[in-house]
Amino acid sequence: RDDNHELPLMKRYPLLALVIxxxxxxxFIKIREDLGEMELPVLVYTIVITTMSITALNRQAKTSRASxxxxxxxxxxxxxxxxxxxxxRFHGTIDLxxxxxxxxxxxxxxxxxxxxMAGRKADFEGSTTDA
Length: 131
Known about the structure:
This protein is 79% helix and 0% strand. It is an all-alpha fold. It has one domain. The protein starts with 8 loop residues before the first helix and ends with a helix.
């Protein structure tokens, strides 16, 4: 019996987790010199948002494929949205920043919500067919 499917995705594919951490770290390092007194709050928030994405990554073996894909994409878009905010606010202006920020933010929230709903639906349908 292969129990590998029960391992968190982060343990099976640590490179994916490393890419998420590295992306967040690179953005923070790039904007760090421009943060001033906001350095600590931005660092803490970077850790929180990165943890959220790693948590989404670890849902893979615990939910339906559709739910995982939507929530994971939403988490990555949420990180993208927040990175755009930080970059535009602290490092350098991004053309049409508010448009890109809102597009990624709305898409992120929609994917997270729909993904969680898809997971709940799959859980419900699975529990009714098991009875």
